[in-house]
Design a protein that fits this description.
Residues 27-138 form the Phosphoribosyltransferase domain. GO terms for molecular function: hypoxanthine phosphoribosyltransferase activity; magnesium ion binding. The chain has 183 residues and is of the alpha/beta class. It has helices at 5-14, 21-39, 53-60, 94-97, 113-124; strands spanning 16-19, 45-50, 69-76, 88-91, 101-109, 129-138, 148-153, 158-159, 175-177. The radius of gyration is 16 Å and the shape is globular. The protein starts with a helix and ends in a 6-residue tail after the last strand. The relative contact order is 0.22. Bound molecules: 1-O-pyrophosphono-5-O-phosphono-alpha-D-ribofuranose and hypoxanthine. Residues 49, 51-52, 76-78, 84, 106-115, 164 line the site of 1-O-pyrophosphono-5-O-phosphono-alpha-D-ribofuranose.
Length: 183
């Protein structure tokens, strides 16, 4: 469903900014430092979890000054809605994963169902090791933890830096919480 321009602006106007662009940039620098300590010299295969992981991947990779390769996987469970369902695998690069040190990059750790299943899939596909990083972690119980976290925010429905609301707002820099009346 498309949002018209008036609706779009109203949703953005009612949303709360939880993390500013400058704070996100600082979080990305910190993540890059930790990932460099953990992965430099291991020639990792970075897996971007499409679609939301595309922004954190694009912002983080130029901050990683060591040898690595980039691939992606596509597992989704929200598909434009605000509550998660079953994981649907659209692309799982099983052959590419065997024997590799894998870095999984995603935008958000919410219930943790997606990351848990992605990590399990990497192990099933024969990864040598799996490290995970998320840009945003919601303060709530998760099915699994990420090894590296950019920012921690309250458990509200979010958009920005890859996270979508109704398939929009992935391009907003920063993290924003959707107003209750829009849920
Ligand atoms: O921790 P969870 O509760 O599993 O939620 C996190 C996942 O949900 C979102 O993906 P989504 O399925 O919405 O697909 P998208 O990346 O296309 O937005 C997000 O990108 C994470 O992959
Ligand atoms: O709060 C969220 N916003 C957007 N996508 C998401 N996927 C899981 N949680 C969220």
């Amino acid at each position: 469903m498309k949002l018209d321009a008036i609706e779009y602006a109203a949703i953005a106007g009612r949303a709360d900014c939880l993390v500013t662009p400058a704070e996100m940039d600082a979080a990305l620098d910190r993540m890059a430092g930790v990932l460099t300590e953990r992965l430099a010299g291991k020639d990792p295969l970075v897996l971007c979890v499409m679609t939301g992981g595309i922004v954190v991947t694009g912002l983080l990779l130029p901050r990683l000054h060591f040898q690595l390769r980039l691939d992606y996987l596509h597992a989704s469970r929200y598909r434009g809605t605000t509550s998660g369902g079953e994981i649907v695998w659209r692309y799982r690069p099983s052959e590419a994963i065997r024997g590799e040190h894998i870095l999984v990059l995603d935008d958000v750790l919410d219930e943790g169902v997606t990351l848990d299943q992605v990590i399990r899939a990497c192990h099933e596909d024969g990864a040598a090791s799996v490290l995970s990083a998320v840009l945003v972690e919601k303060c709530r119980p998760h099915q699994c933890e990420a090894d590296v976290v950019g920012v921690r925010v309250p458990n509200r429905y979010l958009y920005g830096d890859g996270l979508d609301y109704k398939n929009y707002f992935r391009n907003a820099h920063g993290v924003f919480a959707v107003a209750d009346e829009d849920l």
